[in-house]
Amino acid sequence: MPNPSTVPCQYRTGRTLGSGTYAIVKEAIHIKTGKYYACKVINKKLMEGREHMVRNEIAVLKRISSGNRNVVTLHDYFETAHNLYLCFDLCTGGELFDRICAKGNYYEGDAASLIRTIFTAVSYIHSAGIVHRDLKPENLLFRTPAEDADIMIADFGLSRVMEGGIGGDKLNLLTEVCGTPGYMAPEIFKKTGHGKPVDVWAMGVITYFLLAGYTPFDKESQQAEMEAIIAGDYKFEPHEYWANVSETAREFIRWCLTNDPNRRPTADECLGHKWLASATPHFVPDPESPTGGPTDLLPHVKKAFNAKGLWRKAAFSIRALNRMTVLAGTGYVFSNNHAEAQRLRENVATYKEESEKAREKMEDASITHQHESDPSSPASPSHSGHPSAKNLHAEGKKNILKKQDDISVDNTSNQNLETMMAKTKLTEKDEQVEAEKSKSTLSNSGKST
């Protein structure tokens, strides 16, 4: 097979901006234009057999990039001998809650304005046939430090194009429950099939968080949190935090957190709710204000945030380690103390360090053209016309990994801990309901005799 053609890289790297599940994010400067970008650097070793995940992210971003000012744009993507590179908007304005805490005051109207803007972007994403699946405050970034900077939805690594295109309702599910637990909808845990409504649920959790400084399902353990989500068990408490929030805002949150996804509102319907649509903002008047202006929410929000430590504690995203355990062929979830889990974490760290340091300097690397121009298209056929045993083995491995990573809603071959816990909880509840019904029936029968 001839060597792939190469061209010099058009970017040079700057400082490291952060680290994600499979990648590091570095500042990248285009050599000719001098423009700055955020570049996701993915080590090929780490993604071996999982290339479809990167193709999926590119396909999603190509569909929605540059169509909405509040959605991050994919400007370029390419690969070299060792790494894959995705170049995005460089957002320098910081995370959402950092910006709120830096303000001198913060009112319910400010929260409504933020949620309105984000929901407009979510509506755009959904209209393009995309579900994000990982909406949370950490993925909401400001473009610049300016006061009027755009807020951006970022990180489409878990996003999917819906089955059946724009009108599709069902989605292939990940083997492991995906997302960030506190923001995940009940149907994700139940594995009954999920789609765009999971983003609306996440927006309900974000709205609650922006008004109180903590999330509605925050519990002492992950199991308790999951069970609360499945049951829709949350309250607007303590009273002192919610006394300054309007009933209209609480009604909006309740609507977004409708347990049944078929009855949950769409993004467009949420934009029509009076809390977002009214020209006059909703608020609880400040009793100490001579003009009856809105109450400042910032003191309570910051107090709750500091007490819970929600933002800066490691918001455990179960997708990372669980996907790596599947990649290693284990097929089940490890506890954090498991020796195999430790080994996998070390491998991830090693591969990411290779991407960042020794293996390759971006500006000195040559870009190879091994992928199709359309990242969502199938791989090119073998040049020989007959696939080799090695190619068949590699293709088989990829297919197995993909089935483990994305499974249909009726596939029950993979049962992870969270799923079994969820199903056990639901079974217990069903049995309890049936027992109550039987008790009631016997009681009524006794009365009639």
Features:
449 residues; alpha+beta; Phosphorylase Kinase, domain 1; Transferase(Phosphotransferase), domain 1; 2 domains; two-stranded antiparallel sheet; 13 strands; 41% helix; 13% strand; nucleotide-binding
How would you explain this protein's 3D organization?
With 449 residues, this protein is an alpha+beta fold. It folds into two domains: 6-90 and 319-373, Phosphorylase Kinase, domain 1 (2-Layer Sandwich), CATH 3.30.200.20; 96-308, Transferase(Phosphotransferase), domain 1. It is 41% helix and 13% strand. It contains 16 helices and 13 strands. The strands form five sheets. A five-stranded antiparallel β-sheet has the order 2-3-4-6-5. The chain has a two-stranded antiparallel ribbon with strand order 1-12. Helix 4 (108-127) runs antiparallel to helix 6 and helix 6 (197-212) runs antiparallel to helix 9 (247-256). Residues 350-374, 392-406, 425-439 have a biased composition (Basic and acidic residues). Residues 350-449 are annotated as: Disordered. ATP binds at residue 40. InterPro entries: Kinase-like_dom_sf, Prot_kinase_dom, Protein_kinase_ATP_BS, Ser/Thr_kinase_AS. Residues 409-418, 440-449 have a biased composition (Polar residues).
Name of the CATH class of the largest domain: Mainly Alpha
Number of domains: 2
Number of DSSP E strands: 13
Secondary-structure content class: alpha+beta
CATH architecture descriptor of the largest domain: Orthogonal Bundle
- What is the alpha-carbon Rg in Å? 24 Å
Number of alpha- plus pi-helical segments? 16
The portion of residues forming beta strands comes to: 5-15%
Ranges where pLDDT stays below 50 over 5 or more residues in a row are 165-176, 310-337, 369-392, 397-431
The dominant shape is globular
H and E order = EEEEHHEEHHEEEEEHHHHHHHHHHEHEH
Protein name: Kinase-like domain-containing protein
Binding site for ATP: 40
InterPro entries: Kinase-like_dom_sf (IPR011009), Prot_kinase_dom (IPR000719), Protein_kinase_ATP_BS (IPR017441), Ser/Thr_kinase_AS (IPR008271)
Keywords: ATP-binding, Kinase, Nucleotide-binding, Serine/threonine-protein kinase, Transferase
